[in-house]
Design a protein that fits this description.
The complex is a heterodimer of chains A (112) and B (113).
Chain A lengths: L3 E4 L2 E5 L4 E7 L5 E7 L6 E6 L5 E4 L2 E5 L5 E6 L8 E8 L7 E3 L3 E6 L1
Parallel strand pairs in A: 2-11
Antiparallel strand pairs in A: 1-3, 3-8, 4-5, 4-9, 6-7, 7-8, 9-10, 9-11
Chain B lengths: L3 E4 L2 E4 L5 E7 L5 E8 L3 E10 L2 E4 L6 E3 L9 E3 L8 E8 L8 E2 L3 E5 L1
Parallel strand pairs in B: 2-11
Antiparallel strand pairs in B: 1-3, 3-8, 4-5, 4-9, 5-6, 7-8, 9-10, 9-11
The chains are: A mainly beta (112), B mainly beta (113).
Chain lengths: 112, 113
């Protein structure tokens, strides 16, 4: 079953606001990934994190790999309407080959 | 540009029918994956393959099968479609090796009546 708890499940914000979402697990992951899915499309990789404590940015997006290796968060600053979509966290373990475990997703709605 | 293509994009069928969803990638990736996406469950792995003639079961493999006769294609077959298999299906591929990102197709929306 699902091993990643992603929250919140949905968010409704105003344009310009900052957004924060996170994923937690009861077990360790070696890599954390954040994907975004636009309506009618497949997920697209936003940020990959490979080391505990790592903080990585991609434009207005910032993600961190928790020091316990059991959590990660994604922040979006100064949201814009095109940020709308579903954001997924995914974890990878070295013992799992190339398989990923996905969170349930956070549905983000941005009101202009 | 290299890409991953799923077909059809939408399909409606009846229970008991055999259905095959196609996935074709032009990146020459060794690793390919099939997921289903349902509300409240995120993406769940159905089957995956690490190369030609290699197939493995994921966490929700019952009722599904795959075959890998070449590098580019990993078709997903529902032997006898059930209403519980109504879902959106995503194919992904990745290069072999550590920390290689998965690239996703745009999905197939399958409705089983």
């Amino acid at each position: 079953g699902q091993q990643l708890n992603q929250s919140p499940q949905s968010m409704f914000i105003q344009e310009g606001e900052d957004v924060s979402m996170n994923c937690t697990s009861s077990s360790i992951f070696n890599t954390w990934l954040w994907y975004k899915q636009d309506p009618g499309e497949g997920p697209v990789l936003l940020i990959a994190l490979y080391k505990a404590g790592e903080l990585t940015s991609n434009g207005r997006l910032t993600a961190q790999f928790g020091i316990t290796r059991k959590d990660s968060f994604l922040n979006i600053s100064a949201s814009i309407p095109s940020d709308v979509g579903i954001y997924f966290c995914a974890g990878h373990r070295w013992t799992s080959g190339s398989r990923l475990t996905f969170g349930e997703g956070t549905q983000l709605t941005v009101n202009p | 540009d290299a890409e991953i293509t799923q077909s059809p994009r939408h399909k409606i069928t009846e229970t008991g029918r055999q259905v095959t969803l196609a996935c074709h990638q032009t990146w020459n990736h060794n690793n390919m994956f099939w997921y289903r996406q349902d509300l409240g469950h995120g993406l769940r792995l159905i089957h995956y393959s690490y190369g030609v003639q290699d197939t493995n079961k994921g966490e929700v493999s019952d009722g599904y099968s795959v075959s890998r006769s070449n590098t580019e294609d990993l078709p997903l077959t529902l032997e006898s479609a059930a209403s519980s298999q109504t879902s959106v299906y995503f194919c992904a591929s990745a290069a072999a090796g550590e920390n290689q990102p998965q690239h996703f197709g745009d999905g197939t929306r399958l409705s089983i009546l």
